[in-house]
Amino acid sequence: MRKKKGPRIAQTLLTFLVLIVFAFPFVWMLLASFKTQSQILSTGQLFIFKPTFHNYVSVFKEYDFMKFIWNSFLVAAGSTLMSLLLGLPAAYAIARHHLQKLGLLILVARIIPGITFLIPWFILFSKIHLVDTYTALILSHMLVGLPFIIWIMISFFEALPTEIEESGLIDGCTHHQVFLRIILPISGPGVITASLLSFIFSWNNFMFSVILAGDKTKTLPIAVFNFMSYSEINWGALMAAACIITLPVLIIALVSQRYVVSGLSAGAVKG
Q1: What pLDDT sits at residue 250?
Q2: What average pLDDT is seen over the chain?
Q3: Which pLDDT tens digit goes with each residue over 161-174?
Q4: Could you tell me the sign of the dihedral formed by the alpha carbons of 104, 107, 112, 117, in that order?
């Protein structure tokens, strides 16, 4: 049966329109990162211009950007790992013991704006001398990652048949061994999805880092302020820095696209 051309053309046009709306800012940012300040401000050199790598050289030579990249990676990886260590057993317990009220409480903690926690945390970390440390940033970023991992994994664990666990117990495994050797391996897509999204959220987090980070632990989103001053904004270096921040996330999204889509859809269906 042949499909009508009208709806298909409309769908294609709508797809291109959405693609243009979302892709144009990124394309403009990428092109601007290879332009001089005057070329960026010129409307006549939007796509055709003489490219320069000066902005990228400036970012790494003048602003020690490798240090900021390392800080962001360490905080994002640390908060994701800690969130997994606490979140996976918590999600499994909530799913198996039907602790919906506890799950709802965790969801409320996620819904509350993060700025609500910011001032108490700053006072607390100041008292125990943890401001400008990786520990403070990792703990604060877990506010985003931990509830997210728990809520993704609850639906996965609830969908697993209890007969799998019973078989493991009959074969002589303890509850811990069943969880580590049977449940976690077959929940791989969910664990990968939750880990990647938690890492990306932490990588892009600005609010906690702007208050709790200092010269030693400044992360990439905060380092972008180096290119803004009261009198001028260095647009070329700013766009180059934005591209550097975006590149790891973009690579992770492209490489893990299959796992993320299957993980989220599986969680949605099973949930």
Answers
A1: 82
A2: 83
A3: 888 888 888 888 88
A4: positive
User: Which residues, 6 or more positions from 33, have their beta carbon under 8 angstroms from its beta carbon?
Assistant: 55, 56, 236, 239, 240, 242, 243
User: What is the Cα–Cα distance from 57 to 39, expressed in whole angstroms?
Assistant: 18
Say which DSSP state 180 is in.
Answer: I
What is the distance between the terminal CA atoms of the chain, rounded to a whole angstrom? 35
3-state helix, strand, coil in the chain (%, to 5): 80, 0, 20
CB 173 within 8 A of CB 181: yes
Query: Residue 244 above 60 pLDDT?
Result: yes
- Give how far Cα 49 sits from Cα of 24, 34, 57, 72, 85, Å: 17, 9, 19, 33, 50
Amino acid at 193: T
Phi and psi for 196 in degrees, rounded to 5?
-65, -45
Question: Could you tell me the two tokens for 149?
Answer: 């991992």
Question: Which secondary-structure segment (H or E) carries 156?
Answer: helix 134-159
Q: CB under 8 Å to 263, separation ≥6 — which residues?
A: 152, 189, 190, 192, 193, 194
Burial (CB count <10 Å: 0-12, 13-18, 19+), residue 102: middle
pTM confidence score: 0.80
Token code pair at residue 1: 């049966």
The neighbouring-strand residues paired with 228 are 233
Nearest-angstrom CA–CA distance, 132 and 217: 6
Residue 77 contacts residue 199 (beta carbons within 8 Å): yes
